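LAB NOTEBOOK - FOLDING QUEUE
OPERATOR: T.R.
BATCH SIZE: 2
PURPOSE: Compare the predicted structure-token outputs for two unrelated chains run back to back under identical settings.
PRIORITY: normal
REVIEWER: second-year student, initials M.K.

ITEM 1
FIELD SEQUENCE / FIELD STRUCTURE:
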Amino acid sequence: MEEKGKKEDEKKKKKKDKEKEKEENYPNAWLITTIYKTFKGVLLESAFFKLLQDLLAFVSPQLLKLMISFTQDKSSYAWEGYLYAVLLLAVAILQSLLLQQYFQRCFVLGMKVRTALMAAVYKKALVVSNEARKESTVGETVNLMSADAQRFNDVTNFIHLLWSCPLQIIVSIVFLWFELGPSVLAGLAVMVLMVPINGLLATKARKIQVKNMKFKDKRLKIMNEILNGIKILKLYGWEPSFQAQVEGIRGKELKVMRKFAYLSSVSTFIFSCAPALVSLATFAVFVGVSSDNVLTAEKAFTSISLFNILRFPLAMLPMLIAAIVQTSVSRKRLEKFLGGDDIDSDIVRHDPSFSTFTIGICTCFQPFIGTCKVHLSSLSMSPGRLVAVVGAVGSGKSSLMSALLGEMHCTKGFINIQGSLAFVPQQAWIQNATLRDNILFGSPHEEDRFQDVIKACALGPDLELLPGGDLTEIGEKGINLSGGQKQRVSLARAAYSQADIYLLDDPLSAVDSHVGKHLFDKVIGPNGVLKEKTRILVTHGVSFLPYVDEIVVLVDGVVSEVGSYKSLRARKGAFSEFIDTYAQEQNNQMHSESGNNAFISLHNKIRYVCCNDISLDCFSCTVILPSLCLTCSSNDSSVLSSSVRLRKNSSIKKVQDVGESKKGQRLIEKETMETGQVILFSVYLQYLRAMGWGYSVMVFVVYFIQNIAFIGQNLWLSDWTNDAFSFSCFCATWLSLCEVEALCFIDCLLFMTGLFVFLGTLLLANASVNASGILHSRLLRNILRVPMVFFDTTPIGRVVNRFAKDIFTVDEAIPQSFRSWILCLLGVLGTLFVICLATPFFTILIVPLAVVYYFVQRFYVATSRQLRRLDSVSRSPIYSHFSETVSGLSVIRAYGHQDRFLKHNEITIDGNLKSVYPWIVSNRWLAIRLEFLGNLVVFFSALFAVISRDSLDSGLVGLSISYALNVTQTLNWLVRMTSELETNIVAVERVSEYSELENEAKWVTDTRPPEDWPTKGKLRFENYKVRYRPGLDLVLHGITCDIGSTEKIGIVGRTGAGKSSLTNCLFRIIEAAEGRILIDGVDISLIGLHDLRNRLTIIPQDPVLFSGSLRMNLDPFDRFSDEDIWRVLELSHLKEYVAGLQEGLQHEVAEGGENLSVGQRQLLCLARALLRKSRILILDEATAAVDLETDDLIQTTIRKEFSHCTVLTIAHRLHSIMDSSRVMVLDAGKIVEFDSPDNLLEKQGHFYSMAKDAGITKDENTAL
């Protein structure tokens, strides 16, 4: 049923989209009708049950009327009374059964609607065009799935009240007319007056709600960025600035919430007064109109029970209206997203009549960057050829790839492709799955082919290092792989897929030169695994160009030349210049171990060897691309990323204990889910403490007084009707005097009741906003202070969930359910009190009823709570999978795997429904049992009234039975509220779980270093040992060395040697197991983290930017003047670019720096370092993502501007450190060699063999 519903929904949505697409705006107002068409069967069925139940509700007051006249008329037979009592019970039971059938259908419907919407959003996300995608960030799209779909779910549950409320109101009024005649109109007038007031409040509420959603989106967007770039924030010590940003938005959000709370307390006041006002007005008019009208007990209490029926629809309508208002906001957002443009499938044709794989004349532009256009004259590629695309940074190479994938907006022309595609993006996209699943990517597993691909992509050695081999789980965004490993996995995925056409967007840049050469030979090149296929390779590596069949040169988005390497060299055009600039040819041939090699001296006077036998003008250098990973991960012959949580077997000792090795492999632990009582009491106390004790006590007292006033008012009424009955024989004038007094007294009580409700709600609103503020700032403060290890082992989705769903619950759901709970509890106690007062017999029954009630409730609450927890835990994977999909869209589309991802999304959603459905059913289980109890209360209060009718006033009988009729609903609500409060309070528990995580060391301690420290920049390691997490092996085994002031040190070593770990230790991202580090004689473990991190500078491997202005990205604390910033922009060669922007320094950077090229982002990171001017600089292969020109600029700037500093360079290419004063060679966490490059080459040890691999030999180095 559900699947079918979903599919239909989808089809209709698509159809509607197409019809309305022609309008200039997005199509609107189709979502609701679509949902209706899909689910109308269930809707009508539930409507029928609701109708029957509504009509039955009016039978009880009539029975009550008969019952009262029976107690007044002492001559009637006893069996009549018993009959009425039994009838009351029967009607009530029937009503319960119908109501539960109706609820069951509605709740399941709500669940289906939510599911259908989530599936539709997911499906749309897979086909959405790039322009439409640019309009909303990942965070906002995830919000559509979580918050907006949930809103629809909530409204659907109660949608029938839209017609049922008015119906109940009309029927009540008709019956009241029979009782009290035209004076009902007075009550009606009061009701009608309520409507405009309500409308006013609702529109106001809506405005506030929209504002609130805006702030929420903004806050979540920043939180998302903070969590994605947390490593950078820690390295730079920037947490306070971002904390202040989030707190600022949160402050505004709380202000808006406070407004909303005040508004809702006003409406609560009006609605708590409404039923009482209505009955008061009616009775007053009834008595005042003529002296013949006497308010007898039967009239009064039949009317009161009818007015009680009125209370529910009157109270529900405004809530329903508010919910619908909120949903309409969600509806607009969903319609905008679902109605957005789809990607144009006509750009890429698959026409077999073309013999080659052709790119037609096409002008495309990349809407993501907005400015970058690609103009292609006709370009055709024959099957089975290797075509290289070269050009400077920003010349449109990646855009060309996007155009081939059909991701671009095409202004004219077309592309024709024959055969299937495989795509390797510039920034590798890795799924949170095992390594094997990442490579197979949905293809069947064939062991031989798999092993071939692994070997070709040089993943063999890495698999040995990983604890679970190819079954190792890879974290979100490939966080436990180094940049090079990710790129190779991405390439392996393509190679395994056996497609016809391969689009390779610079896959060789993120790996070392010797690995790059291996990949080219074994995979991409003329003798590689893919030699039969058509390959388009974007590359910066000039050394591969002689081996390709054809070269396409791009200049500013235009194809300037096409041809083979030789013909292009001969032409002496742009390509030839490009090569000449970077590789001035040297003809002198030299002999070294690798035979006859061509040496080319580069402008930085380092020569290196191209390992091939023919003497060619080429030079082997690859430019390294940043990886997506957010840790300062490093590349192949380097280390397995700083966040290596695979260190378990890093020294490749086999772990003896299998169980233990398993522990190391699961790096993403299952989300913890508390079980049992929400260690309940303590969590409630925590919430009350956050609200403030004073507030908490006052709220309870105020509500208690309100309840007393309410009961007093009814007791007075019953007393008065008795008087009326006994005194009706006396003169009428005296009576009317009494009545005036009575009415005045009831007036006062009524006003008090309303006032206290208002006060209580107001106090509670204030208190809960306080609590929200406190809980959020605690959570935020703590999350920014937890050590890096936490982020390495926790998926970001899980942390975001705390800030989104759980904080939302604390903000909106808990105050609501808390208030309802208090009111229900007091209501039930009040009812029982009144019944006992009227029929003292009833006290005997309270104990057994309470016992039964207690057990039912206990049984239910435990189940419900656990189901709710399962629900929130099984929700996280839906959102993680979704955000993963959005970030890897181009890859998924290129491989044509949309259906597989849709299927996976359906499976995750179904997993979530498995805990939602039982929860719905458990609610019905509870309700039937409780309503039965309530029905028994009614029955016994009627029965006792019959038994002791001689001693009872008819007024009290009326009062006790009309109260009892009310108790069923209140009891039901009480348990429902208890359980809702418990399930919601889980959010407080989850928030406080993350507010109590262990922190890293203090940001600032009492021992502060001098202001100008470090003055010399001397470093000293003393027997330094470190491990990533307790229980894992050491990563660094006793490092001891001295580094003098202004020394330039290169750090090299194979993957997993511990290079990145060394820098992490300097910044105390990981703390020492033993030993210490001294900087200028100060032990860094004794000073505060910020004192340390603010005095060191790192240029990380991945340039991470945050959304905000350029200025904020360089100087988040506003410590520097604009002149300073322009100066560093000039030094980092960005001044022209920034000056050319409209807003200059205030230019908005998009989420993740999307609107700057990778090279520009890297230059901004250089500018950050220049701005900090510290004495110690750490370079984590910072020149990874730039072309050779920019690389040269960066190197020169660093040499000049940081000449007075101590510089540590983690090298992935040995050439960049051949001019260092000394080189440190690490192996398996120990220093094996530490000397000047020349001496190390003489020694013929580790360094020598690495240099030989990279093609550097002794004689060249002496040529420096």
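ITEM 2
FIELD SEQUENCE / FIELD STRUCTURE:
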Amino acid sequence: TSSVPQVKCLLKVLDIMCIQCKDRENPKALLLFVPQAPRMGTLMGVYLPCLQNIFGVILFLRMTWLVGIGGVLGTFAIVFMCCSTTMLTAISMSAIATNGVVPAGGSYYMISRSLGPEFGGAVGICFYLGTTFAGAMYILGCIEILLIYIAPQAAIFKLEGLEGPEAEAALLNNMRVYGTCVLSFMALVVFVGVKYVNKLALVFLACVILSILAVYAGVIKTAIEPPDFPICILGNRTLVWKGFDVCAKVIEKENGTVTTKLWRLFCDSEFLNATCDEYFLNNNISEVQGIPGITSGILRENLFGNYYEKGMVIEKQGIPSTADPDAPTTNMNRYVLADITSFFTLLVGIYFPSVTGIMAGSNRSGDLRDAQKSIPIGTIMAITTTSTVYMSSVFMFGACIEGVVLRDKFGEAVNGNLVIGTLAWPSPWVIVIGSFFSTCGAGLQSLTGAPRLLQAIARDGIVPFLRVFGHGKANGEPTWALLLTACICESGILIASLDAVAPILSMFFLMCYMFVNLACALQTLLRTPNWRPRFKFYHWTLSFLGMSLCLSLMFICSWYYAIVAMVIAGCIYKYIEFRGAEKEWGDGIRGLSLSAARFALMRLEEGPPHTKNWRPQLLVLAGLDAEQAVEQPRLLSLTNQLKAGKGLTIVGAALEGTFLNNYPQAQRAEQSLRKLMETEKVKGFSQVVISSNIRDATSHLIQAGGLGGLQHNTVLVSWPRNWKQVEDHQNWRNFIELVRETTAAHLALLVPKNIAAFPSNGERFTEGSIDVWWIVHDGGMLMLLPFLLRQHKVWRKCKMRIFTVAQMDDNSIQMKKDLTTFLYHLRIDAEVEVVEMHDSDISAYTYEKTLVMEQRSQILKQINLTKNEREREIQSITDSSRGSIRRKNPSAVSTQLSVTEEQPSSSEQEKPEEEVQLIHDKNTAATPTSLQSPTESVGTPGDKVHMTWTEKFDGDKGKPPGAGTPEGIKDIFNMKPNQSNVRRMHTALKLNGVIIKKSQEAKLVLLNMPGPPRNRTGDENYMEFLEVLTEGLNRVLLVRGGGREVITIYS
């Protein structure tokens, strides 16, 4: 029953909620505004606004020219393609618009909430730029009508007597001057009061509809009585009907033959014996009816296109013409010329703006009585109506108007009339005045809508540098946004050519429509639970087809404009991604990311990575202080230097306690980890585990970290500080248990010692070396890590040096040679040095030879391998068992499981010793011939030896073979501890002395880390051994392999 009041409250909130609330993302603000009563239905709210926005300047000023240049069939294909694109986009838009309440904001709101803030911001700004350039196009159309058809005498830069580039420059300058004046006036009107613009909208729409009806009426009238619009043709060249009244060279009068005004245009006097233009003398004058009518059959002539180069004369097909091909064309200003070079893709770019404007209904969604019903019906009806008008007009123009008149862009052949006006009834002035007012109205609508769109983007706060444009007057009018819009619009007006501006705005609109289709397709395919549109007549294939059409049209219109538009959108996308505000709008891109991640994880589970793809996927175990802050931040600096943003990184921390009591501390710890990761630029995930003790919590992290195939394979943990202090004894015990667990889990382990001395990400080493002491083969980790570190700018200039240890009976020169060859095949640049030590110096350190090439070569010779096969065998060294190949004498090769130790009393005889810990690997079999003595055959064929720091058994000559068997291993721990410890420390000191001698000045020393003893009573001795081994070294990275090869010589 307690839920009843809550439901009532919810319904009350929904009842008074205002869709147009200014702060839509602030839930509290929803209660502060009471909505006005919705008042507009489908007709007034969606259908008529869409009609007004779709019909525009291109229909009146360029449609006839498009039909003439592209032909009826070509133009119909363009119109059909563009109208199909907008229809498919409208279907996608209807699905999105009916999937919940769409506040005012139109396409920007829909895309940003469907595809996320990055896409929303990028496409929203593109849509804004498109709308702004549309305003420039409408203003240029308005000036073109004014200066060419209504008041040519108003031109500031006179065109009289000019021809070619000069005349073109004068026309463009007139457009710039008048365009700037009209833009200033329109911006002032919008600034003073938008309500006047909205009131005049219906008047402007009435002008458009009346103009279109006048054209249809004119077409019908041509079937009964075609209008009289003669055009004059000299030879086959169309003449500009200006400066003459009769289309003839001479006329007969009572007193004889008299020359006409046309004669005087081509000759130097009015007399018959005057010197005239050669082409004028050699060709006849003919008069052709410009509007022959729908029944004339002219459609056949206009079916196919006629494309022209700039400056070519518009010619009529089928009329004989006599011209000297070598003679220059004179009196060019007397002919109708092509003002631009035309081609099919140009026509697409010029035409497409005439089908834009389909978003007008969705932009008014806040004022609609039932937006989810009105937007689909009104928009699709409007597109159907306009598409029908456009497609029918293509055939009407082709069937009624002479081809040369269609190709005459400015109506110069029909006495300077607007070409579409010549077809209108009752007078051409109906079209001229109607189109003038419609372009004015469309320009005002663009200057009204664009600033509001920019203001909506700015108020969302996703693009920081646009926030200033979110402010406005006290009543909310976007003053600053209007100022920016006017400036951008002015840049379009300075271009001054309608044909050059049209493709620019085509790009931006096409990009916007493409992302509307993408949003719908994405939501449908992902089947997100919230995707429940009321509009059911959509399908992802339609959206995908619409998206493909938009992309194709972008490159068809202009490939370089398309690339520029995409670069602009891409730059905005990346800017929002890096600098924008974090917004969670439940967008489809997040759903797509989840689906892609799931798919990738499922693929990763198919098997372990190949050696070539292996890289350390780190689990970083960070220690926390009492305030849940990270104790050693440099651990994450090292992580960044190792990873460089690649692969998986999990930064984990362990807390002691219970989950119920310590959850707030865990939250603080996770926040602290994320903050430090962001500071150190570590890309990865953070995880905090709470358990009754730190040991178990760390164990849980190692076991449960990662997901599916995205698992860590390497653990990074710092050396326990102050481990010798009594109160910290648990720390080092936990550390040794961690080493045991990583070994059991076959994970690699990296232990940086003196982590505070490691460089930060901002430091740079300009010289120095990274020294690798390769004592035990660990799968290649020691080789791979310096290579990865040197990819980072901190270590980039450091050289790599590799030291390996030879015993007295080893051939040091051959070892160095073989190791150098191996590194060459690994494509690793490093200096190689072989350090010779007495057997007793390294006996206590479990030792495995890495590259004793001399013995391998001897084996290969014995089995007579070819040279190529021998080279391949170089790699197999790293694939062999972890036991060393050791040469006992020049003619014998044996497999040694651990390093022998010399007794002080006897230096002649090597004593057999065995490791305690054996890791079985059934895939690696020892060759029977490699086993020399019973004491060395403890590991059965198939056993794999793992390097381990163990208690060693001191045998003597007469020790029976049983001492090396598992039963004999029990006696190993009966050895006197003092003697063992002395030898162990002796080994550590000797090795440490050699390392300090060679690597004192190294920037980093990498060492094999032996495994801990099985017997936990030797743990403290193990820590002492490592401490002595690394004493006096500034930065040390102890490395323990994970039991698999991580580096290969193959490509």
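REVIEWER COMMENT (ITEM 2): The chain has three domains: 42-226+338-557, 612-752, 764-882+979-1050.
FOLLOW-UP: none requested
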